[in-house]
Amino acid sequence: MLLILVSCRKDFDTIPNSGKLEFSKTTVYLDTVFSNISSSTYQLKVYNKSNDDINIPSIGLKKGNNSKYRILVDGKTGVDSDNNGFGDGKLFSNVEILANDSLYIFIEATTDIANANPTDLLYTDEILFDGGSSYEQKVNLVTLIQDAVFLYPERYPKQNGGYTYEPLPIGSNPPQNIYGFYLSDNDPLNGNELVFTNAKPYVIYGYAAVPPGKTLIINPGARVYFHDASGIIVAKTGSIQVNGTTSTDPKLLEKEVIFEGDRLEPDFSEVPGQWGTIYLTNGSTNNSFTNLTIKNASVGILIEGKDATTVQIKNTQIYNSSNFGILSRNARLNGENIIINNAGQYALATILGGIYQFKHCTFTNFWKGGSRQSPAVLVDNTFFDGTTVFIADLQAKFYNSIVYGSNNIELGLNKNTGALFDFNIENCLIRFNDINNVFDNNVTYAPIRNATNILSNNANSNNPQFRNIDKNNLRIGLNSPAKAKGNTLYLVPNDADGKLRTSPSNPDLGAYEHLSD
Questions:
Q1: pLDDT, tens digit, for every residue of 348-400?
Q2: Residue 291 region, left (φ>0) first, then alpha (ψ -120 to 50), else beta?
Q3: Overall domain count for the chain
Q4: Which of 135, 243, 262, 420 has a beta carbon 3.0–4.6 Å from 19's, enabling a disulfide?
């Protein structure tokens, strides 16, 4: 057998590269990165489609050791130019590719805005194959760089090595320290961190907390990006005021405020659960959100407890929350033109009582991340912590709204007679397909049978006809059953796009006035 194998053995000698390599891409676009933050890893495939094993004398970055890119070639790190025992990811010598085979090149970048072209903020380089020879081939590398304000906990070196981090105490008896920090109105590096402008994006690591007695103001057009397990916490007597306004360009949303994760690649644009939440703690006050989009959080907004003020949420979109769009425990909340879609559990959950009023809202749940047993909206005057059931008075009013989704029952009510349960819903379109007539004699659900409401008994009955649920476009068209079914008593004059609700007698249901085409 050995003799046969040796006699059939192919000659593995290579021939020099002749400039006929082929590539999966001629230009590799690394998606937008922030200054001095490493990009994701991108892939390039190099093909040898000849019948000969070839040797590539060199593969390297045109800018050499000054390049802000790093590459791996088939898992190798390249020439060790500084003799530290590790390749620099800049230059590779004598790379072989077998006949009709290929190799992988993995590419990353870490660079600063100062290195970018000032006119377009692009940083570029080239991967050269046989650089300088008559057979030279190249692949272009392009990265867009954004400068940003980075907010993160301070760290302090330990005597024995390592670091301790600035603590953020949450709760009481005893407080729990989490990875976070208090925003300062006189930070030595960032200046006033309690005013977010649209001059640069903000990138937050850990939980940024609004101190007691202070107010975080977020101006129109601000962009806030959250790293994994990050968010904003508003302490007792603290406030947050998000002051977005109506944009003129519906694609750019240049005057709207946007909260989302810090993974800027297109593959992450709609991935739920990339960051934590906006947490309004018990005793926070005068909180308001206007013209805000929240994407890809675990919980969009978490509201706990109430004081004499009411949380105002207007013209706000919350998409792709891995758990809840809005979770509210015993709070005061007024909502107008709220749009929520795609949540792992509830789009809206008002539990342990509270005082709520919603006008012209669209609460939907077309979650595709797995099985969902919960309805889009839950109204509940109880809370179960695993051992004890707590109850509190509840008042909840829904007007001129849409409650819909992919489940048969998208409105859930849980009433404990030990506390007030004052629930009313009028002039709303509700997905409520009671297949087995379970709720026929349930008096808690009597308000949904109000003659002003429209019940959708299946996907083809009174379907709101949203434009594109997969892209979170919950606008309705000319033929939607939600058109002109609202009540002017509960009118919000402008819709979530800022468009005037033109129907003089009956406005449309939901957050959007219907489209004409």
A1: 999 999 999 999 999 999 999 989 999 999 999 999 999 999 999 999 999 99
A2: left
A3: 2
A4: 135
Average pLDDT, the chain: 93
Partner residues linked to 336 by β-bridges: 314, 359
Is residue 387 assigned to a domain?
Answer: yes
Measure the CA angle with vertex 57, ends 51 and 58; round to 5°. 120
- 144-179: string of b/e by CB count within 10 Å (b at 16+)? ebbbbbbbbbeeeeeeeeeeeeeebebeeeeeeebe
pTM of the model: 0.91
Q: Confirm if 247 and 269 have CB atoms less than 8 A apart.
A: no
Is 291 part of a structural domain of the chain?
no
Among 146, 172, 199, the domain boundary falls at 146
364: CB partners within 8 A, 6+ apart = 340, 341, 347, 376, 402, 403, 404, 405, 410, 466, 469, 474
The amino acid sitting at 341 is N
Average pLDDT over residues 452-465: 90
Nearest residue to 27 via CA among 104, 140, 107: 140
Provide the token pair at 48: 């040898």
> What does the alpha-carbon distance between residue 277 and residue 80 come to, in Å, rounded to a whole number?
44
Residue-wise pLDDT for 258-284, tens only, equals: 999 999 999 999 999 999 999 999 999
